[in-house]
Design a protein that fits this description.
Blueprint: E1 2-12, H1 16-27, E2 32-36, E3 51-52, H2 63-81, E4 87-89, E5 92-96, H3 99-109, E6 119-120, E7 142-146, E8 149-151, H4 153-162, E9 168-170, E10 173-180, E11 183-189, E12 195-205, H5 211-218, E13 230-242, E14 252-254, E15 260-266, E16 271-276, E17 284-286, E18 289-291, H6 297-308, H7 310-313, E19 320-331, E20 342-346, E21 351-355, H8 362-373, H9 395-400
Parallel strand pairs: 1-2, 1-12, 2-9, 5-14, 12-21
Antiparallel strand pairs: 3-8, 4-8, 5-7, 6-7, 10-11, 11-12, 13-16, 13-19, 14-15, 15-16, 17-18, 20-21
Length: 404
């Protein structure tokens, strides 16, 4: 049996990028089909900190990205006002043991084109995890608080999926992808041996680390292997689980400790720390072959955790420990990290592949794709009550007739 669907956009990939685009298309009244081969959010989305960056972690060299992130912050805040249950933490600490690092970061945050608000945290108000004890004192000397939030990844994906689920289909493999200036025709094997044939105006690959293979399989010869539009890094995440009395909640970035990056999850009977640092995506080279290896990374992270929270680490035998590795795909043509979301257009094929550098940038990536696809809203908006748009003046102006 072959099902046939006609739509405006075929999306391949059900992570936060594909799902956000699906929601934007739905809000504008456009028809789409989203194919996902495994679980929604099961690749990069739920393997990350699910942290909404506003640019605080970046230094002067990445200033453009910090400024760019300011454009997406209002979109996230507007959306989260309607989904407050997704928020695990509504703020983040930034700690410094190095005076120079502290001075450079706070100076950058205060520049006119950046303008990132923060507040100094008095030692009497420091989080429990950083308090001194018989085990020693934290090496952090300056602590500030910034309004960056971390989300529950599972609930985030669920919320994005909820309003568009009828247009999402689990696929096993493609049997056909034909794309040219006249449109898209694709056929995929779906559940129970059935097939679905989709005819669309546009095609978007939002499959993260799967984008490059999709591009190469679908358009042989399109990609120059020496100038790949994709870079895949092997990201590491340390997972620590313990009772709340032993493992207090902490969310923060600690620049002077190799950028130690930590967010917490609060379970019913235990707390969880998810820990990485600036080096989690670095690679080793062995006999001209790139090798992803965590053996050099883990001891250094544990050492910096000891410097950060010695009292907590003194209870390490009470915790459960684990490490996972996950591919992190980002658009890059030169091996360097891109500054913004990367959108690759297959000329003459009505096809795009998209790689945000951060989960945070999914709304901007979606907006950029909609502009390139020239899809104008076709669903009417909802009018506010008239009083909301009525201009009001002072009594004196009103009485004199100036306001009429």
């Amino acid at each position: 049996m072959t099902l046939v669907r006609e739509c405006d956009v075929l999306i391949v990939g059900g992570g936060v990028t594909g799902l956000w685009l699906a929601n934007d298309l739905d809000a504008r009244g456009h028809q789409f089909v989203l194919f996902e081969r495994q679980e929604l959010g099961g690749a990069q989305t739920c393997h990350s900190h699910v942290y909404i960056h506003q640019g605080y972690i970046y230094n002067e060299q990445a200033r453009d990205l910090a400024v760019h992130l300011k454009d997406v912050t209002p979109i996230w805040w507007k959306w989260l006002r309607g989904h407050p249950w997704l928020i695990e933490s509504s703020s983040s600490f930034f700690g410094f043991s190095n005076e120079t690092e502290y001075a450079l970061k706070t100076a950058l945050w205060s520049k006119p084109d950046v303008q990132m608000g923060y507040s100094e945290v008095a030692r009497s108000d420091w989080p429990e995890a950083l308090l001194p004890s018989a085990a020693g004192a934290s090496r952090i000397r300056h602590l500030v608080l910034a309004p960056e939030v971390s989300l529950n990844g599972h609930l985030l994906v669920s919320a994005l999926e909820n309003s568009v689920r009828e247009s999402i289909c689990r696929m096993e493999s493609f049997t056909l992808i034909r794309a040219d200036a006249s449109g898209i025709e694709a056929e995929a094997c779906i559940a129970n041996g059935a097939r679905m044939r989709v005819r669309a105006r546009y095609l978007v690959f939002a499959a993260g680390s799967g984008n490059l293979k999709l591009l190469m399989d679908s358009f042989p010869g399109e990609i120059d292997s020496a100038k790949s539009p994709q870079q895949i890094r092997r990201a590491h995440m340390l997972v620590i689980k313990g009772r709340p009395t032993d493992l207090p909640l902490l969310n923060g970035v600690f620049a002077s400790l190799e950028g130690l990056f930590l967010v917490s999850r609060q379970g019913r009977d235990e707390n969880v720390w998810l820990v990485s640092d600036y080096r989690n995506g670095l690679i080793e080279t062995h006999e001209d072959e790139i090798v992803y290896n965590r053996r050099w990374w883990l001891p250094l992270v544990l050492e910096n955790l000891q410097h950060l929270a010695p009292a907590v680490m003194a209870r390490s035998d009470r915790f459960r420990w684990g490490v996972y590795e996950a591919p992190k795909a980002e658009g890059s043509g030169s091996g360097k990290l891109p500054e913004k979301e990367r959108i690759y257009y297959v000329k003459g094929r009505n096809t795009w592949a998209v790689w945000p550098t951060k989960l945070t940038l999914a709304p901007l990536a979606s907006r950029a794709l909609l502009e390139q696809m020239e899809l104008r809203p076709i669903r009417p908006g909802i009018a506010p009550e008239k009083w909301e748009t009525t201009e009001c003046v002072t009594w004196d102006e009103f009485e004199s007739g100036e306001g009429l």
